[in-house]
Structures are given as C-alpha cells and as structure tokens.
Write a structure and sequence with these properties.
Layout (H helix, E strand, L loop, with lengths): L7 H5 L6 H12 L6 E7 L10 E3 L2 H8 L5 E4 L4 E3 L4 E8 H4 L3 H25 L3 E4 L10 H10 L4 E2 L4 H5 L9 H7 L2 H11 L6 E4 L6 H12 L3 E6 L9 H14 L6 E5 L4 H7 L5 E4 L1 H4 L7 E9 L2 E4 L10 E5 L7 E5 L16 E2 L2 E5 L2 E2 L6 H12 L9
Parallel strand pairs: 6-7, 6-11, 8-9, 9-10, 10-11
Antiparallel strand pairs: 1-5, 1-12, 2-4, 3-5, 3-17, 12-13, 14-15, 14-16, 17-18
Helix pairs in contact: 3-5, 5-6, 8-9, 9-10, 10-11
The structure holds zinc ion.
C-alpha cells in the first residue's frame, strides 16, 4: 500500500514525464543535436465555448521546476488575463535540456489556469458577493495546496484547506458539516457547542437544513445566537431543493420580519455559474466546489516557434501554429486593446483609444537558470486578477 503521488524530487528531475520525451532527448544526444537552441512558446488557440478570456496561473511552480536548468524564461506575470493566440510563456534553451519537462510544465499551467479561470468567472458573476472555494473533497489530497492556491489567486474570497495557511499564508474559512449536527442529534445543541468551542474570531455560520425546513432552522439559529449569528448556510440536497431562489427569498423574508436582517445567507452544494446568476441578488455568499475543482479545460499547448541557426533566430513552427516567439502588448488603460508582435523586435505600440504606450506583458523571469524577480504573494496576485476581471463585462454563460 502507498500513496500514488509523484515526489517533488521526481517532478524537479524530469521523471514525471511522458516516455517519448525521454526517447527524444536520447536521440538528440546520440545524434549530436543536443545543442540545437530553440524557443518554445506556450499559448492557447481556442477557449471553451462562451469564454472570451482566461487567467494565466501556475507560473511560480513552473519557475520552481526550471530554476537551475540552463534556460531563459519569459512569461506573463502570474494572474494575467489572456485571450486566444496570445503568448503566455517562452522557454529558450537547448531543446534536449528541457524536453522532458514539457509534460510537467503543461500539466501545472493547464491545471492551475483552468481552476483560476473558473474561479475568476464565478467571482465576476458573483459581483460583490462572497465566493468561498469548498472543492477539496473533489480532489486528490496531494494537490490540496495547489487547488486552494489556484482558486484563491483566481479571485476566491476564501478557501477551506487547513494547509492553505502554511502554503499561501491565507487563513482557511469554513462553517460546520451536517455530521456535527447529526452527532449532537439536535441543531440547537450543535450550534451552541460551535459557539462555545470555536475561536471568537471565526464567524458564526449555522448550517440550517439538517432536520427541518430551512426557514424554521434559520429562525431557530437566529433566536439562539442573536447578534452573534453572522450567517446561515443552506446546503439543501438536490432531492429536496425545488426552487432554491424561492427557498432563499423565504429565509430572507423570515429573518427580516423577525428582526434578524444582519444575518447573511450563504448557499452551497452544486453551485455553478448559472445558479450564481440566479441567486446573487438574494444571497450574500456562495460555497463553490465541483464547478471550480473540475473546471472546463483551458487547453494550453507548447510549440517550438523559433530555432537558432547561424547566429540568428529563425521563425519555424509546425503547420497550424504561428512561427516566431511573440510578445503581447496591452494598453494600461484599456484591457481590450491588445497587440501581438515578435519578442525579439522590441516593438512600440500605441493604444488607438488613448494614445498611451502599450505595455509589453511578457517579462524575463529566468536567465540561465537564475530567477531574476521577486515573485508576488497570493494576495497580490488575487488583487491583480480582480482588478482585471472587473474592468470587463460579465462573462456570458452557456
Ligand atoms: Zn488605451
């Protein structure tokens, strides 16, 4: 018996890879092509239906993998919003030196970016409502810190994993499980015990759908904990759900007419983009699990786009891909004014709306294995993401 988890050593040494990359490296070395220098570009050529943008994340882990390897790396800062055909990252080096890392790097970027993008869309649709990521139970525990980080920097207001405090310096958030109430055999006893035992700074959020109707239990909790009650959580099973919006409105009405307007309403259980749009005007916060933890895939791919021949870079790519390592320019005032140019040209572009100099978005992170920049904290990345997505209209949902 064991846990089927790749170790950090296996990942950093390139053993977590597809076998054809090992064979490719072997062939290149045997045939004397191990010093052919290339630029490999990471990009997305199409997004899931209805998606107009995605959020690039996972960079810190990729830099950790490439640190100390004989490569140069340019990338968008972690948390940068991007669109199809835009460059996300470029690795320059002898292909034989980094070929085996492609699987690992793509795996990190695709998984992170998919989770962060799903979270960013959910947060954008939730507007000023709280979004908590409660999806760890959907995932293998080995990646709990990764999933919490991806959701948090993607814009979640909180995550539930205990390890998030150690890994990303974010205090975990949560309420109470039905199991607590079942063990006590009484909602009121369980809520009272929670209030007595749990640290004062933790908001009192009572789960109110265990034995009775949500409206009855919400009122019971409010009468018991009074001004200490921060919120009630409705996690109504789908077999009992009917119209969730009507249930929420009824709970709100009942709390209000009994003098408990301060009590917020949180909803969890199968929450997705659609239910957020439906409930957001009546609910204060959402606990979102599966729709973030199992997001739509943002299919990042990696292609060699330039080869160094006779002392100069020559654009070369497979058909269907645009040759040349690229740079992305974005107007600092207009996030939708974007131009793609060649990285090596250091182009200047002016925004056609405000005439500002557009900003080259890919910056150099690694030179010959050495990290060049201080990396931002999870909170800094999250703020950066929120700043971008709230400049854009709400995403359309299918
Ligand atoms: Zn502009």
């Amino acid at each position: 018996m064991k846990l089927y988890v790749a170790s950090e050593e296996e990942i950093l040494s390139g053993k977590a890879t597809d076998v054809y990359f090992v064979r490719t490296e072997n062939i290149l070395r045997k045939k004397g092509l191990d010093s052919v220098k290339v630029r490999m570009e990471f990009h997305v050529y199409s997004l899931p239906e209805g998606y107009e943008w995605a959020i690039f994340t996972g960079l810190e882990e990729v830099l950790k993998v490439l640190e100390g390897k004989p490569v140069d790396v340019w990338a968008l800062p972690e948390g940068t919003l991007f669109k199809p055909f835009e460059p996300l990252m470029i690795i320059e080096g002898n292909y034989a030196d980094f070929a085996v890392f492609e699987t690992t790097i793509l795996g990190i970027l695709r998984h992170y970016t998919s989770i962060s993008t799903a979270t960013a869309r959910v947060k954008r649709l939730a507007r000023d409502r709280t979004v908590l990521f409660f999806g760890l139970r959907v995932l293998h525990p080995a990646i709990q810190p990764m999933a919490d980080r991806a959701a948090y920097i993607g814009g979640a207001d909180g995550v539930s994993g205990v390890l998030s405090e150690k890994y990303i310096n974010v205090k975990p958030k949560g309420t109470m499980p039905h199991a607590l109430i079942i063990v006590f055999g009484s909602q009121t006893e369980a809520w009272k015990a929670f209030d007595e035992v749990v640290e004062k700074e933790v908001p009192r959020i009572a789960l109110v759908d265990t034995f009775y109707d949500e409206r009855e239990e919400a009122l019971m909790a409010a009468k018991l904990l009074k001004e200490k009650l921060y919120a009630v959580r409705l996690d109504t099973p789908s077999s009992r759900r009917g119209d969730m919006l009507k249930i929420v409105k009824e709970v709100r009405w009942t709390l209000d007419i009994n003098g408990f307007s301060h009590v917020k309403i949180f909803v969890s259980g199968g929450i997705n983009e659609k239910s957020i749009v439906k409930l957001r005007d009546y609910v204060d916060g959402f606990g979102v699990g599966t729709s973030i933890a199992f997001p739509k895939s943002i299919d990042i791919s990696a292609d060699i786009v330039e080869v160094f021949i006779n002392d100069k870079w020559v654009p070369r790519a497979k058909r269907g891909k645009l040759p040349g390592a690229k740079q992305l320019y974005v107007c600092p005032n207009h996030i939708n004014e974007r131009v793609v140019g060649l990285l090596s040209r250091n182009e200047k572009h002016t925004c056609k709306l405000c005439y500002s100099q557009m900003k080259p978005m890919l910056v150099k992170y690694i030179e010959n294995g050495k990290i060049l920049r201080k990396l931002p904290s999870a909170d800094e990345i999250r703020n950066y993401v929120l700043n971008q997505i709230f400049k854009l209209p709400e995403p359309s949902i299918n």
